[in-house]
Amino acid sequence: MAVDYIKEGNIAIFTLNRPEAMNSLNMPTVRELHDAIKDFRDDPQLRVGIVTGAGDRAFCAGADIKDTLPFMQEHSQDQWNFPASVWRGLELWKPLIAAVNGVALGGGLELVLACDIRIASEKARFGTPEVTLGLIPGFGGTQRLPRMLPWCKAAELALMGKMIDAQEAYRIGLVNTVVPLEQVMSTAREWAETISQAAPLAVRAAKEAMIRGSEMTLEEGLRLENALVAYLTSTGDFNEGITAFVEKRKPNYQGK
Questions:
Q1: Hey, which CATH number is domain 3-196, 3.20.20.10, 3.40.50.450, 3.40.50.300, 3.90.226.10?
Q2: What pTM was estimated for this model as a whole?
Q3: 130 is catalytic
Q4: Which one from 32, 91, 110, 156 is the annotated catalytic residue?
């Protein structure tokens, strides 16, 4: 399997497992990741996902030049034939954490961008080298980078094809924290556990409000936020949260 997909309680872990190819994205990997993410989305027991790469060299080195790029060229007139994924085409409100254990280039960096929280190893490196191959970052990089970073830093990555190290990625706000390699997964699990203890419907609503609201005017976003608050106050999780607070106990959220 090109993607190892395991479930640990409320947490799903997706491991790109092609270390011999720097965990690059061939078409079987893309399809397996799509299937795993879709299962994660639809499994009511799962609340948070962690995406990482096998080995200690690469999170994901991007598209497999011998496999994925020819597929893209063959389907150049209909790029939406590319399987739906977290890059584009697959709506996902459950949070994803990127545990970046090594280089994240091209589609690998774009996979990091599609995650909500990013934990980086001190050895991690980031970049979008597509322009050096006659392409542009085509898995969402040209759209997400300038939405997440200052324009000039997004342009530096997208137009120069250069790599930056983990500390620079942290400085510009591309990642949340930088830790030693051996602490990447334990930190990701710790953060995932913190999220999984919160009310799952509220967590998903918060992510939905952030993503959908980013494309709205402030007034439209506030209306969306208000509608989601109204929905949440009708849920069992909201009642459980209030009751547990009054009773001074840990809430038992059911995602209902």
A1: 3.90.226.10
A2: 0.94
A3: yes
A4: 110
